[in-house]
Amino acid sequence: MSSGKIAGIAIGTLAIGIAIGFFIPTDSGIEQTAPVPMMQTESVDYGIDKITIGFIPSEKADELTPKAESLARFLESEFEGKVEVDVVVPSNYETIIEGLRFGHIHAAFMDTGPGWIAHDRANAEVVMAEVKKGKVGYYATVWQRADSNYSSIDEAIGNKVAFTSITGSSGFIRPIGTLVDRGLIDIEGDDIVALKQALDNSFEYHAFGGGYKAALELLLNGSVEMAFGSDIAPGKYLTPDQQAQLKKVDTLGLVPSHVFVVSDDLSSDTKQHLVDSMVKLNHQDNNQILKDVYGADALLPTTAEMHIGNFGQYLDLLPGIEQATFDKKNYDAPK
């Protein structure tokens, strides 16, 4: 599937979301629509006393937890006190994925890659995607200095390059997955050791900056000839003077936004009511609860195949990414 087709799907999905009638804040650039009708729940037996929701792993759990608990209290009110809602902010994705697999965690916010792994390994269902400024994704981009003349990511082979992190969606997974898919990188093995050896064999020099800003600074100071990351990274993390020193080599395609997944163990009624309740976070009266968590303007109903699309195929091309994901402390996504 081409990146253009994925972009079309994302835009089409957004249009569907607007059509079904949920609120998106006016500052997102999307027209506000009527709210979803209230769901009647008096006679529903949810078959569960407590729902545990996982949040993207963070070393700053103490900062996120109060915001996550505000969301939990909102959901408890939506379940009319019939179901308790707990939150967990772990230090790695293994806790969330295994929790979804064995029923200890019932739903979770996740980065794109781990969300795909949870869908594949724990049979979790991707039900919603974050919308920020009217968009459900951002573009993986290859950057060079303004005085360079590269025209394709293919020219990265044998060159000096900078990544964000080994689990970075636009800063590693999409660009390396692209090079593997084109047959320009050969990975001999099925683990993280094989992946790292392939990097050593494919580049004169490569570095993991740890984030967008650090990777771009390695490019600016002449340590590398290309850097990988988001299309919006220079504008967000660099000064105007630094931005003027860069230009694009290549735009690789859409990287999907964060997702909200639910466990396959939840009953159909419980799952549906949870999703309906999360949609109400798009309503103006509740929207600040959502914004406080990860800065999203809205949540858009979707599926793993529709939202993540062929990005999951790039993940599947990179052995060891699942292992690296479980060890991940922070996430690589625009904020």
Structure write-up:
The chain is an alpha/beta fold and 335 residues long. It folds into 2 domains: 3-135 and 257-326, Periplasmic binding protein-like II (D-Maltodextrin-Binding Protein, domain 2), CATH 3.40.190.10; 137-255, D-Maltodextrin-Binding Protein, domain 2. It has 14 helices and 11 strands. The strands form 2 sheets. A 6-stranded mixed β-sheet has the order 2-1-3-10-4-11, sandwiched between helices. Strands 7-6-8-5-9 form a 5-stranded mixed β-sheet. It starts with a helix and ends in a 9-residue tail after the last helix. The relative contact order is 0.22.
Characteristic key phrases:
335 residues; 2 domains; 11 strands; 14 helices; D-Maltodextrin-Binding Protein, domain 2; alpha/beta; 5-stranded mixed beta sheet
